[in-house]
Write a structure and sequence with these properties.
Shape: elongated
Order of helices and strands: EHEEHEHHH
Number of domains: 2
Mean pLDDT: 84
Radius of gyration: 35 Å
CATH topology of the largest domain: Alpha-Beta Plaits
Number of strands: 4
CATH superfamily of the largest domain: Ribosomal protein S6/Translation elongation factor EF1B
Low-confidence stretches: none
Helix content: 40-55%
Strand order of the largest sheet: 2-3-1-4
């Protein structure tokens, strides 16, 4: 069985890195060339992102930085091998990776939005708790206050003498 589909269109995603030897504007033209390569190969671009200059995890051909581009596209499986080989030979792309991407239904998008809303609300609650925590004085000042309270305590004998004086007073009712 073949690894590539020969019939029907499939949704793909390609991530590629343009070398650091280009400026930002030149890298954008290289991204345009990759897009043209995809459309000339029979692909229909459904999404595009330009991430800009990022540090690479490891050097590739003596490049520590690269410009990242990401495309989502629909393409027939038979044309994928041709585009892949063209990108391998294209000197202005350091690395590329093409993966099959599942198309999201309306239910999937709604579910992701619901999860994202829950995460955002939890982050907001955590931020509020942090603000409240920042407003409360720290425990080190509380410890010093309790030490002062211990030092300012009245001796038991002194309290007994004061109580006796109050009870023995003649002006009590």
């Amino acid at each position: 069985m073949s690894k590539t589909k020969t019939t029907g269109t499939t949704h793909y995603e390609i991530l590629f890195i343009v070398p650091n030897k280009f400026t930002d504007d030149e890298a954008k033209t290289v991204v345009g060339q990759v897009e043209k390569m995809l459309t000339d190969g029979g692909g229909k671009i459904t999404g595009r992102e330009y991430w800009g200059k990022k540090r690479l995890a490891y050097e590739i051909k003596h490049n520590a930085f690269g410009y990242y581009g990401l495309f989502e596209f629909d393409l027939e499986g038979a044309n994928l091998a041709k585009i892949d080989s063209n990108l391998r030979l294209f000197a202005n792309v350091l690395r590329h990776q093409i993966v099959v991407k599942k198309t999201k239904s309306e239910e999937d998008i709604a579910r992701e939005n619901k999860i994202r809303a829950k995460i955002d609300s939890k982050k907001a609650e955590a931020d509020k708790k942090q603000e409240i925590k920042n407003k409360i004085p720290s425990t080190s000042t509380n410890v010093s206050k309790t030490k002062e309270n211990k030092d300012s305590r009245v001796d038991l004998k002194d309290l007994d003498e004061k109580l006796e004086g109050i009870l023995n007073a003649d002006d009590l009712i």
